[in-house]
Amino acid sequence: MLTKIKIAVFVSGGGTNLQALIDAEKRGEIKSGTIALVLSDKPQAYALERAKNAGIPTAVLERKAFASQGEYEDAIAALLKEKGIGLIVLASFMRILGENFTKRFDRRIINVHPSLIPSFCGEGFYGLKVHEAALEKGVKVTGATVHFVNEIPDGGEIIMQKAVCVRPGDTPEVLQKRVMQEAEWIILPQATEYVCNQMLNN
Ligand code: GAR
Questions:
Q1: Mutate to test the pocket of ligand 1, among 11, 12, 17, 116 (most ligand atoms within 8 A of CB)
Q2: Nearest-atom index, ligand 1, CA of 47
Q3: CATH code at 190?
Q4: Hey, which of 12, 33, 132, 198 would disulfide with 94, CB 3.0 to 4.6 Å?
Q5: Domain that holds residue 105
Q6: Whole-angstrom Cα distance, residue 96 to residue 66?
Q7: Does any ligand 1 atom lie closer than 6 A to the CB of residue 92?
């Protein structure tokens, strides 16, 4: 019988969300799953250093090494199978996964997005662009969302959300930091534990 779900965290950049997951597992807050692999599409991603410092196996698969998106996704799927991965957590993975891939891993991929979906989400809304759009609109409350991933960018079922206040004078950078600290780093580990727990008990 499985005692813990093996988790693969997909990253592209700095990896502060990955760090939040690593720290939550260390504190025992993620106990139904364990981070078994960190996969990056960028060899220079600092997230890979964070994984190495925590003793987590890493892999780099660059899109440009493959002739098509299909071959790229097949290579990712083969690696996940080899490692016995049960859940994929997209932690600022800046690449859209195709329908073949998301269908193959139905309700086994989750993503953190830095807004309250359905606001400021979908294709083109990533990183600072999300916060720029929120400030331009003048919203007074924003936040973060963790959701299942399907073929529609940021369109899968919502698992968890947390609101964050916008303050007068906020810049996109200041708002991004507050949303990470007050929402993303909290709900991503919580949702990961929730989904792993559900998987173990189903
Ligand atoms: C975070 O704000 C995260 O929400 C965003 O990139 C920033 C850096 O994350 N990700 C996305 O917009 C993904 N759609 P990191 O420090 O975890 O790499």
A1: 17
A2: 18
A3: 3.40.50.170
A4: 12
A5: 5-201
A6: 15
A7: yes
